[in-house]
Amino acid sequence: MTGNVQIHEMAWAHDKLWFVNTRFSCLCTLDPIHSFVARWRPPFVSALTPDDRCHLNGLAVVDRKPRYVTALGTMDSPGGGRADKARGGVPIDVPSGEFLARGLSMPRSPRWYNGRLWLLESGTGTAGVVDPSTGRYEPIIELPGFTRGLDFLGPYAFIGLSQVRESAVFSGIPITERLTERTCGVWVVDIRSGQTVPFLRFEDALQEIFAVQVLAGRRYPDLINDDQTMLDDSFVLTDEALVDVPAPLRSVSRRDP
What we know:
Layout: E1 7-13, E2 16-21, E3 26-29, E4 37-40, E5 56-62, E6 65-71, E7 90-93, E8 107-113, E9 116-121, E10 126-131, E11 136-142, E12 146-153, E13 156-162, H1 174-178, E14 185-190, E15 195-201, H2 228-232, H3 239-242
Antiparallel strand pairs: 1-2, 2-3, 3-4, 5-6, 6-7, 8-9, 9-10, 10-11, 12-13, 13-14, 14-15
């Protein structure tokens, strides 16, 4: 039981599951006895306290080691990361603790892909790459929503978009000034040209997407439903056992061999 540490992204590194402990502004691993094991925090964060000092949020693993993170700001005070959310965001190199770029608007979802560091600048609704040698963020595409959640397959980037809530948290950022109406969905972008290929737009009910994950080679994934009644009364049986189940109770799912 971790307690309410406001976990953001998670990733496997070697044999451990690392997660971004946003509330304590650090990277952690799980532990059977303790709430978490603090492994790393940004050099500018002076104490391990549950007050979300920089809004640490994204994690990229390279060569099975935590390598890059993103934070909304570089303040060292309770809730300080949101103070300059419009232009205070940074990607950070974990081994050195150095900033790879500065002046970003709510950066998230750092990913190392094809020899480049990708991330989303959520506050502008863009996806792009960071050049560590120059400290510049170069947008590849501008999208019609708050970008959050990124994965890749071949030459395509899968990007989550959210409408973002109309609240103080999201006020004063470029995308709310650029777009009066924002979209929730998943966009597929050809990273060679920066052009949208297909997209999936949610018209109703769903307003936010937090993460996007490509399940390569899986055509019929299962989803965990939080409907307790459904969980209590749904069972997956072998084909042999299904023969003895009355037809009205059966729902056969096609699966890849």
